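Here is one chain, start to finish.
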Amino acid sequence: MNPLESEEFRRQGHMVIDFIADYYNNIESYPVLSRVEPGYLRKRLPKSAPKIPEPIETILKDVNDHIIPGLTHWQSPTHFALFPSSGSTAGFLGETLAAGLNVVGLNWVSSPAATELEIVVMDWLGEMLKLPNSFLFSGTGGGVLMGTTCEAVICTLVAARDRKLNEIGRENIGKLVVYGSDQTHSAFQKASRIVGIHPENCRIIETSKKTLLSMSSEILKKKIVADVEAGLVPLFVCATVGTTATTAVDPLGPISDVAKAHDMWVHVDAAYAGSACICPEFRHFIDGVERVNSFSFNAHKWFSLHSTVVAFG
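Its structure:
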């Protein structure tokens, strides 16, 4: 059996596209929040995988009858939680092309276009944000596309950790301290634990209405000084541009000044608001970015794309 017979693929592909288009035509008729009970799907599906492949007609009927009722309809015009709809014709068709070409982009040789397209697009985005040349391939840096902000935070923490441990010895990992605010995404604390930072060494800076819920560089400085005096090693601070709860913006310049005095890594999590900083009237929210080590934002939250995180460093 040919797993990809061109004419059958064409027929089934049209059916899937029609199914999705119909879903969007009727999306307002669904309750935004699913009304199913936990464990509902196991009761509806067979106990084991089918031994004979089912036709696409049956599969799409199952999707309509069993999957659609269990969805929270993020793309609904009456969904107002977390972040905006990320669906668009360009996003869907771009992902279809990527799936169809099925590129394995391990390195340049495995598919030169994959590597070079990423380089070109990353520089486009960096230039649109007016990032310094140290973040661009055309300069001395570069960026990468990732699946989630969690990946970006983990990668930057690993880079910061290894750089510091090369200086002080790997046996001193227990002395490393990281810093974020009480508005910083929970991914920061989770990533810290994944890379080996002791939970007790994750400092959370309290925010207040006085600072518009942004991180205070003065409080950060006091925390760092206290840790240094206690024989610990300040490693990493995560500044946020557009916090999840309130869209607060941390002051990148003052935070960088404090961190650089102690040779710390500064990462900017601009997941929510980074895309908006392409607009000249919002660019000032990332003033000071030239002094940070890494910067990431979620393209899907403003560009109507599927889940894509852009990370520069």
